[in-house]
Amino acid sequence: MVLWGFYWEGGLYVGIHGGRALIVMSNLYWLTKENLYIFIKRSGNTSMLRINASVVIPLSEIECHAMRAQGAGGQNVNKVSSAIHLRFDIPNSSLSEFCKTRLLALGDKRITSDGVLIIKAQRFRTQEQNREDALVRLREIIIDAIKIEKLRRATKPTFSSKQRRMDQKSQRGSIKSARQKVSFD
């Protein structure tokens, strides 16, 4: 495997091979192939889930329990605990107060009255893929919560745009009146 475009990004060695980003360090684990921003960095006993450049969550604050998945699937779904039940306690997390209040104000049905975010991932057949899916969904929820929408400033239409609109209306009205039957009274 030949790597090119090898660079250092925020404590991560990242290389590109065949148009895909790869992590090139033994103590780094790549979570998803679709989402290049989620990395778990193992450093000693602590593991971190990077949400964006400034928000990082220790994996010790995220509880993941394996359980049996629901629905069709035959023997595999009946024997194997492949679904992941992720619990994230928002009030007791290391997030900033801004992030906590924004998350709790979401009004999402997955957030309990105690402020615990519960995500159930059972889309895939393996525990690892479902754990990755749950972490990706947690990251997306947090990003959506902390995103600040740009305020819309009301503006007035210009005089010339009003004139053009009125001219087009009168022109369209004359076209429609020309379609009427001619009366010879």
Ranges where pLDDT stays below 50 over 5 or more residues in a row are 1-19, 21-46
- Major pleated sheet: 4 strands, antiparallel
User: What order do the strands of the largest sheet run in, or round the barrel if closed?
Assistant: 4-5-6-7
How many strand units? 10
> Average pLDDT across residues?
76
Q: How big a fraction of the residues is strand?
A: 25-35%
- The N- and C-terminal alpha carbons lie at a distance of 90 Å
Structure class: alpha+beta
Order of helices and strands: EEEEEEEEHEHEHH
Give the CA-based shape: elongated
What is the quaternary state of this protein?
single chain
Rg measurement, Å: 27 Å
- Kindly state the percentage of residues in helix: 25-40%
Number of helices, counting only DSSP H or I runs of 4 residues or more: 4
Name a few traits of the molecule.
single chain; alpha+beta; four-stranded antiparallel beta sheet; three-stranded antiparallel beta sheet; elongated
